[in-house]
Automatic annotation (TrEMBL):
A Pfam family annotated for this UniProt entry: Ppx-GppA
Annotated Gene3D superfamilies: 3.30.420.40, Exopolyphosphatase. Domain 2
Biased composition (Low complexity): 12-29, 41-59, 81-95, 145-163
Protein name: Ppx/GppA phosphatase family protein
Length: 529
């Protein structure tokens, strides 16, 4: 098709290089369909060469004149990438990490101002409080080595990144006049367990646990039949006590008390065993009598007795003995709950001794009832006020039971269907009389393997838990109550409470450790197991 003024008319899809009436020429279309103005002095061939040099994106891929331009653009990009890679490796060798946000982006995409801003933040050198490159984090394989702060505080651990750029986190304020809190330690070597607590006083009547240890040693295994501690049982106990000795030796303890209970008290070789413990571990344990054991159990649970409670029957089902205390609280309540004990007894039976006599692995309803009746016979000789007198003639709202033993904590864990035992959810839990009966019936319906598979029981207690339930059932029949409170505490807590009270640790006015609003990460509190 002919144009009378300019010759051949280009096709509709092509780009025109013909002049316009205003003397300017239009360049080829770009990717957005717009025309670029060219100088009128440029010839069509010059315009074509310039457009090829610029690598115009609007050209169809099949045109021959765009091939050299695309190759040149690829070479420039490759060269730029190599230079940036060399710069990155040089920065890493100098200890400064630089991140280029443009690497890995698709070609032809433009970055917004916001993206450029992010690139600048990522590319700044890391400060001393931030995470360093992998080459400088140590040779632990996991990059877990920590850098000390530039201020030289001496505290290990990476500093948290501050909210403002370039600003270092402030250390928490600690009163210069504050003396270090004293540490107290309590160790209880029982018939079944070896337990240790290291704590420091906080608010009146309370303390914070700094370190703890607990292990099932079964020191009283076979004691009922032979009357002596076996060599295997003593060896297990000594190994556990060595761990306790290392924990005590690693800290400055102001005051400690280390006790042994029924197994060492009843065994013929109990005294010689404690001499061996002193020579091999350096720990001097004392054998306490049953009255002291009952008072310590009450002292450890004093914070679980409500103000409106008028009377309580507290029981501690142990491995070789079970302590029961009747507590009656009048109008004037003492700071020490043990001062309100009116009657107490210690039954020479526990979960270990009872399960060995009746069998703990395969328990039937008949054998379970036989265990209950044996304990009921022991309780019948205990002179205690009737439950009506304990309730002060009311409907029973002023009277309840408190159980502090592995038996009641196990029942609470099974009742809550916990995937693993959690002391925070168990300690202080209230259970109704119907709930306790339902949990005992549930455990009695399980065989040994089912009990061992439960996460709140485990294989170590699977043969002991039903013997503990039998002792609990005898106590419930003697003192019927509509509710029972669970206490995951015992002799260790009682020992700590008495020592801190004797020292007046809660009477001293201690300044606040940190200013209000200081950084919580700087707290010097110990781990709470």
């Amino acid at each position: 098709m002919k144009d009378p003024d300019h010759g051949d008319k280009p096709s509709e899809s092509g780009a025109s290089a013909a002049g316009r009436s205003d003397g300017s020429k239009l360049g080829p279309r770009n990717g957005k369909g717009k025309r670029k103005r060219r100088k009128s002095s440029a010839s069509p061939s010059a315009i074509a060469s310039q457009s090829g040099a610029a690598g115009l994106a609007g050209r169809p891929a099949g045109e021959n004149e765009t091939e050299p331009a695309r190759k040149r653009k690829r070479r420039r990009r490759s060269k730029s990438a190599k230079q940036q890679a060399q710069a990155g490796s040089a920065s890493q060798s100098s200890g400064v990490q630089v991140v280029d946000a443009s690497l890995g982006e698709r070609k032809g995409h433009k970055r917004s101002k916001k993206a450029k801003h992010r690139r600048g933040l990522q590319g700044r050198p890391l400060t001393s409080g931030e995470r360093q490159p992998a080459q400088q984090r140590g040779a632990d394989g996991g990059g877990n080595a920590r850098q000390t702060s530039a201020a030289g505080s001496g505290q290990a651990g990476a500093q948290p990144r501050s909210g403002n750029r370039g600003e270092q986190p402030r250390a928490p304020y600690i009163a210069a006049s504050e003396p270090p809190a004293p540490l107290y330690a309590a160790l209880d070597l029982g018939t079944n367990n070896c337990r240790l607590l290291i704590a420091q006083p906080t608010r009146p009547g309370q303390f914070r646990v700094v370190d703890a240890f607990s292990r099932i040693v079964r020191l009283g295994e076979g004691l009922g039949a032979s009357g002596r501690l076996s060599d295997e049982a003593m060896e297990r106990a000594v190994e556990a006590l060595k761990i306790c000795a290392s924990k005590l030796g690693a800290r400055t303890i102001r005051r400690s008390r280390l006790i042994a209970t029924e197994a060492a008290r009843a065994a013929e070789n109990g005294e010689s065993f404690l001499e061996r413990v002193a020579s091999e571990t350096g720990l001097d344990l004392e054998i306490i009598n049953r009255e002291t054991e009952a008072r310590l159990a009450v002292s450890g649970c004093s914070s679980l007795v409500d103000r409106e409670t008028r009377s309580v029957v507290l029981f501690d089902i142990g491995g070789g003995s079970s302590e029961i205390a009747v507590i009656r609280i009048g109008d004037s309540r003492s700071n020490r709950l043990a001062n309100h004990i009116t009657h107490w007894t210690s039954l020479p039976v526990g979960v270990v001794t009872l399960s060995e006599r009746h069998g703990g692995q395969h328990v039937t309803p008949a054998s379970f009832e036989a265990m209950v009746q044996e304990v009921e016979g022991m309780l019948s000789r205990f002179d205690s006020p009737p439950v009506e007198a304990l309730a002060n003639g009311t409907s029973g709202s002023g009277f309840h039971l408190i159980g502090t033993s592995g038996t009641v904590t196990t029942l609470a864990g099974v009742h809550l269907d916990l995937p693993r035992y959690d002391r925070r959810r168990v300690d202080g839990l209230w259970l109704t009389d119907d709930e306790v009966s339902a949990m005992q019936a549930r455990l009695l319906s399980w065989d040994f393997d089912a009990r061992a598979a439960n996460p709140c029981i485990g294989p170590d207690r699977a043969d002991l838990v039903l013997a503990g339930c039998a002792i609990l059932e005898a106590i419930r029949r003697r003192w019927p109550s509509t509710r029972m409170r669970v206490a995951d505490r015992g002799l260790r807590e009682g020992l700590l409470t008495d020592m801190m009270a004797d020292d007046g640790a809660w009477r001293r006015s201690r300044p606040r450790r940190h200013q209000r609003g200081s950084n919580a990460s700087g707290s010097h509190e110990g781990n709470k197991p």
